Input
Amino acid sequence: MRFEELPTPCYVVDEALIEKNLKILNGVMQRTGAKIVLAQKAFSMTTMYPLIGKYLSGTTASGIFEARLGYEEMGKENHVFAPAYREDEIDEIISICDHIIFNSFSQLEKFKDKALQAGRKVGLRINPECSTQVGHEIYDPCSPGSRFGVKQEDIRPDLLKGVSGLHFHTLCQQNSDDLETTLNAVEERFGQWLPQMEWINFGGGHHITREDYDIPTLEACIKRMQDKYGLEVYLEPGEAIALNAGYLITSVLDIHKNGMDIAILDTSATCHMPDVLEMPYRPPLLGSGEAGQKPFSYRLGGQTCLTGDVIGDYSFDEPLKSGDRLIFGDMAIYSMVKTNTFNGMPLPAIAVQDKDGDCQVVREFGYQDFKMRLA
Output
């Protein structure tokens, strides 16, 4: 079917745009020898895994279900990090993951030997105490009281035996100048232990496929770790794989007035794009402008009972009416993975648009998908 024939609400992932991003990432791998793996927490649409697997080295997970997904659906390198592992899950994690990264020395003491006996590579997450984010404290792993990583003062050299790599993740939608700043802090605080390591993982948050991203600086950071310490370098971006490669199509259900014009949509910020409220941010909407920029302004909101279920204020060249279709951009990342059915709100369908422009619905959801989550 064609794009305009898809049901609403519906996520649409553009295969050509995904591949465009993958080619950029693969170029970094080819020029530097670094390995890039998909962070499934941002994008875990398994329909796309065969394509992603053609270009990247594998997957990384935040827990057992993502680890199983990467193992079963991509079947390449499979990394995992969690703040703590459950005893009733660690055996399965060890059986399906190549790199197992621990968050603390107590976790290392508990599970390291078991992982090493299985032939797995063991890593330790470090906290370089270098905050480079502005206004995103909720996403800053270096903020005071953070749950993530071992600080320099807490390093226990006696327990580093068997640890072959260090991992840090400090970025969120950032450029490579912030990586360079962070890498300086990593060397300053942990440089004395780098020569005894085999690999280093730069974590995620690298917006490598963004138009203004400074790839030469990224590659210089990679080469620095390779040349200075002989380390194999890993990166685990999530957003960069599907950045600007997906849409959310929605329909206008009604126009309401309360001091301003309000359009009620068949989608929901709360249920279908929760990062709009968590970040917060204003998602791009094709053909629209800022409130007041075009002749007709509307507040766009969802169907749920939450007063704050508002996507944002937008303006249009023509008045909106019931049945109009709106297309939000950059909806492949941190959207499908975070959906929920609050208020019994149905989940959007999921479709793929191929390189010829043809669309195929690959998943639809109904009442049973809501009911099965409850007891």
